[in-house]
Amino acid sequence: MPLAFADPADKAIPIHVIASEELDSALARLSDDEKAWANAQNFSAGLGQIILCPGKSGEIAKVLVGFGTKGARARGRFHMGAVATKLPSGTYRIANGLEGDALEEAALAWLLAGYKYTRFSGPVSEGARLVAPEDVDAQRLEIIANGEALTRELINTPASDMGPYELEEATRALANEHAAVVNSIVGDDLIPANFPMIHTVGRASDRAPRLLDLRWGDSGPKLTLVGKGVCFDTGGLNIKPGGSMGLMKKDMGGAATVLGLAHMIMALKLPLQLRVLIPAVENSINGNAFRPQDILTSRKGLTVEINNTDAEGRLVLADALTLSDEDEPDLVVSMATLTGAARVAVGPDLAPFYTDDDATAAALSAAAAKVADPVWRMPFHAPYEDMIEPGIADLDNAPSGGMAGSITAALFLRRFVESPYVHFDIYGWQPSAKPSRPKGGVGMGARALLEALPALLKL
After folding, report:
1. 341-363 confidence digits (pLDDT tens)
2. Cα(259)–Cα(265) distance, rounded to whole angstroms?
3. Candidates 3.50.50.60, 3.40.50.1000, 3.40.220.10, 3.30.43.10; CATH matching 13-128
4. Which residues are catalytic?
């Protein structure tokens, strides 16, 4: 079911959002009965506190929602998403207490709180619905929410139902929705088409590897999104331990994120030429699996020594990034669940990104703060370049030593791109439920990038 606001014609229960510093003035505006009711329930405007004020017939006439102190609010985001999941079913509207970016965040939070993964559990009852506030762009927020829902749905689907073929089908469904075009190169056809590393990583699986290539738009600047589509990662011959393999259905989170972002771009009809490249593979174990110490020759001609078959994402991305460069785009963005090192560095809530351009970094950081999609700039640190140069080949896919793993992976990818380039090393998973983000797959960085595109591409 699409995420959408309630019909504005529906009778809606007003919500009064009250910050701690506004408590006295807000209570003064209530009727005597409402004030007495709030005092009887010790309403203090603490963050997330909810008071249902009854009408004369016992119905909910008004809702008071505590918005806490500025410090409390700063320790999280999407606070109205938690309110949405706690209120009884019905239609509501935000009457006062929020404006500007805070009001937009609250409205989006409400929409995102409505997402539930129901493919194997069946439908759930409809919860509290919100009438779109008058001062927000409701259509834009619905498009963004549904792009995020697409990302979550793809990540949450188990690998038994989301292999390379199914990821191609999802890409084609999105293309059909927006009159885009998709081409794919599948299985052994990758060899004469010169995508050797995509083929090598995926050849051990009985689910054929492929390169997916979506195009949309015929005018404006060129934006190419490249998403890592490893639909399941055993680690290959360097097999992962069970504890590390349990979440590997999410290893196509980069592909899921760029598809969600592509939906936003196409549905909003941004004036640009969009290309989405997804190397879709399953990293499996078989007699023909690639091995440690193998040396691969990439599409670009650079040779790569394999020192860990579990560092496969950068291999498939390298061939796709080389292809992206051949089209001379104005901006290339890769998104990938690439390294555990990034999680150690910034945890699961931040999307680390790499760029050589300070203006690009500033635009992304400003956009992220505006739309509550936190990102963090990481360095393309040139002194670490020799860590990815093994001597026997041009590049090493898994430098020894275990240090700066996210940085060396980003440096590896940069070797395959000449165009302006941004790389996101995302997690793609919400480890525990937070407001508007249930445990499971989650988009990271896409909304920040969408917000920054006008500045990045001069739209």
Report:
1. 999 999 999 999 999 999 999 99
2. 10
3. 3.40.220.10
4. 240, 314
